Fold these 4 entries.
Entry 1:
Amino acid sequence: MGRTTPAVLTYRRADGTPERFSLQHDVTTLGRSPSCSVVIPLPTISRLHARVELQYDRYVLFDAGSANGTFVNGKRIEQGYQLSTGDTIWLGDEQACLLFSDPEETLTIQAASLPPALFIDEDARHVAVYGVAVQLSPLEYDLLLHLAHHPGTVCTRQGCFLAVWGQPYDHATCEDALNACISKLRRNLRVAAESAGREPPPIRTIQRIGFRLDADVTFAAGREHTASLTHKAREA
C-alpha cells in the first residue's frame, strides 16, 4: 500500500490508562474473543464485534454482525465507514470507546490547515484536541467550558466550583473534589493530544488562587457569544 506509519486505535481502560493498538495488518479484528487483534473483555461486546480493513490506503470500519452494534461518533453504522483522525468508535456502547488516529492523514491535514489546539461545540457537548475527540465526564466538561470562556485569564477556585457544582466554594470541604476534577481533565486532554502526536493544552495552577487555560480555543459556530472566538495562548 505504500504506507509508512500505520493508524492507531486508543482505548482507555477503566483505571484511565490508555492502551494503543497499531493497525499494522490489512484486516484488524475487534471483539471479546482472545483470537481478535484488539481484545476488549466486556460483556456487551460480541466475541467478534467489528473489523477495520485497509482499503486503498484508508481505513474502513465494519460491524461484524454484533449483538449491540458498532457506532462512530455516536451513530450506529450499517455498512463500511471510512475512518478519519478524531473519530470515536463505540463497540456496543460508550463503555468500550476507542479513538482513531492516522498519523499520515494528520500530516496531510496539517500541511493545509492545522486543527485547533482546543475545539468545543457547545450544542453537541463535543470537545476535540488537535482534531482528536476527548471523552469527558459532565463535571470535567463544565470545568473546561468555564476555563475556555476565559482563556489566558486566571479563574478562581471559587468561580470554578460554582460553575461546575453550582454551590459556593468552601476550602475545607471542596478542595479535594475540585483538585480531582482538574486532574482528570488534564489527563483526558493529554490522552487525546498524545493520540495526535501533540502537547496537551496547558491548564496552569495558580497557587492559592485558581487555574488558567493557556491554549487556543475555537468554538463551533451557532451561538452568538461563542462563534469564531479564538484566543491566542499566553506564553507561560
Entry 2:
Amino acid sequence: MADKKDYYEVLGVGRGASADDIKKAYRKLAREYHPDVNKAPDAEAKFKEVKEAYDVLSDDQRRARYDQFGHEDPTAGFGGGGGFSGDMGGFGDIFDMFFGGGGRRDPNAPQRGNDLQYTMTIEFKEAVFGKETDITIPRTESCDTCHGSGAKPGSRPETCSVCRGTGQQEVAQNTPFGRIVNRRTCTSCGGRGKIIRDRCPTCSGSGQVRKQRKIHVKIPAGVDDGSQLRMTGEGEGGQRGGPPGDLYIVLRVKEHEFFQREGDDIYCEVPLTFAQAALGDELEVPTLTEKVKLKIPAGTQTGTYFRLKGKGVPKLRGYGQGDQHVKVTVVTPTNLSESQKELMREFAANGGEYTNEQHQNIFERMKRAILGD
C-alpha cells in the first residue's frame, strides 16, 4: 500500500474537488489511457490506476474513509463496495461509454488499423504548382499466407475453451458478505478468444507482416509548409478483417533564394540605382512562371511596393491566384570616381543641398564664431 500514489494526484484534482470535477478528470484520463486507444506499453497500468482512483473518489462513503485513513483503510473489504480488481474487466464497457456501442466488445471483432504519419520535404515551386511522386513507407499489412487469421494454411483458430471466445474469465470469490465475481483477461488466449494450434510460418501467428509499400502521391498546387495530405486506407493494416488506417503526409517546404511567401501572396525585393529611382525606368522582374515588365515612376522612394496582380500562388481551396509584391530598394553607390563625385556635388548644389564637404566648412565657420577667432 505504501507504494500507491495518492488518488487525488492520480486524477490531477485537489482534495476539495467536486464530484463533477472528479468525473471530468476521470473521463479525460480514461480516454487517454484506454488500451484500445493508447498502444503505449504502460497505458494499461495507467488506465487501471485511474480507474481505481475514480472508483474510490466517486463514492462518497469510500472517499470519506480514504480521506481519513488513506490507503490503509481498516474497513476495506467489509461492505465497502469492492475495489478495482487490477484486471481488464470493464474496459469494454468504458470504451463503449466514450466511443459508442453497447454491451461487451467482441475480442474477435474486426479492428481498424493505426494511422501513419510521413514527413515529406519539397521544393518551393513544387508547393506552388504541385507535383506527383512515389514514396516508400514501412507498414503492417495482413499476412498473405494466412489472410490475417494467424493459423497455418489448412487449419484455423479454435475458440478458447476457457473463456468460450469472450476473451475474459470470471473469477468468483465467496466472502462473508456475499459472492463477488471479478472479470479479467483470459490467461489461456490472452483476451483474443481464439487459440491458434498451428501458427502461420510467415507471420508466426500474428496475422500481420511488415512490408515496404510504394505509394503514389499527388500534391495539389498551392500547398504550404505544414500542410497535411490524408490518404485514406494507406495506413497500418486492420486486424481480423478490419479496415486499414489512414496515411497523413506532412509537407515541409524549402525556402527560395529570391521569393518569400505569405499565404497566397509572393514577395520579392529588387534593387534600384539612384538614377533609376530618380529618373524612372522599366525593369524586367522574375515571377513564378516568367519575367514581366515593371514600370518604375520617376522619384520612386526606397521601400516602395509594387503589385503584380495574379502572379502569386494558386489558391488551394478556391479559384484564382494571389499577387506578387515587389519591393524596390535604392542602392547607394560606393567607390565613386572623381568625375562622378564632381557630378554629385554639382547635383547637390543645383538642388540647394549641402554635400559632406560643405557641411564640414560650415561646421568650421560655426566653431570659429563660437570661440571668437
Entry 3:
Amino acid sequence: MRVVLDTNILFSALISPHGTPDRIYRAWRTARFEIVTSLVQLDEIRRASRYPKLQAVLQPAKVGTMLNNLQRAIVLERLTIEHEADDPDDAFLLAMALAGDADYLVTGDRRAGLLQRGHIGRTRIVTPAIFCAEAL
C-alpha cells in the first residue's frame, strides 16, 4: 500500500506524539505501508518548520530526524502538476498521489478542499481517522 501524507500530518505527528498522525507515522516506520513523498514536499517541510509559529512547537532535531527518515520513502524527484487544488499550495500533493500510484492521500486540512474532493484517480483522499480505521 502506498500513501501520501500531507505535510500537516507529518508536523502533527511531531507535535502530538500520541495522536492519530503519530500512529500513522509510526506504522510507516514499522513498514506497514510505503510513503510517497517528493523533493517538493521535503523542501516544504524544511521551509515551513522555520515559520515562527511552528518553531515554537517543533523541535529542530525531530524535524531533522523525520527528514532523514523520509529519505527512505519513495521520493519523487519531478512532479507534473496537472490538477488544480482549491489551495494552489496543495496541487503538488495531488501530483504526488498520481505519480506515486498512491492508494491514499491523508490530510487533516478540511479548509483546503482536498477532503471534499474525495479522490484523485484511484487515490482516496481521507482524514487520519478514516485511514487508521480502514488501513491500520
Entry 4:
Amino acid sequence: MNNNYTIRPAQKSDSRRVWEIRNHPIFRKYSGNSEFIPLKSHEPWFENKYFSGLNNYCYVLVIEPKVIGYCRLDFNAGKNGYTISIALDPDHHGQGLGYKLLNKSLNLFNQLANNKDILAEIQKENIPSIKLFQKNNFKIYKEDDKNYYLKYKTI
C-alpha cells in the first residue's frame, strides 16, 4: 500500500486533473452521467461548485506531483443532505487508496459539524465501490433494479 500521499481540499488548479479522472472510461461506466464532459464545460462548473461559497466540498488525493483521485460532497437541498462521489485513477486501484480517500474526506467533512446525511448511489454491478462504502460505515437503505442507495449519518 502506498503511504506517500496527501489528502486535502481541492484547489482551483486541480480542475483539469479532476476532469481527466472523471472522464476516464471506467469511471464513466459507473457514473450517473456516463457522457463525456468537455473541459470548457467542466472548468466553470468546478469553479462555481467548489469556490463560489456554495455549501459543497471536494477533496483530492495527491501523490506528488499529481492528483490521483477526488471525493466530492455536494449539497442536495431536496434531500437536506449531501450526495457523495468518489473516483480514483485506475492506475492506482487495488492499493487501499480509495479507502483512505473516502475515510479521510469523511473525517474532514465531519470536522465541519454539518450533521447532515451523506448519500451514495452505486450501481449494483460496481461491487468494489459497494464494499468501499460499506467499509466506511455506509448502510444500504433502499435499492432498485440498477442501484443500491446508501446512507452515512455524520456524528
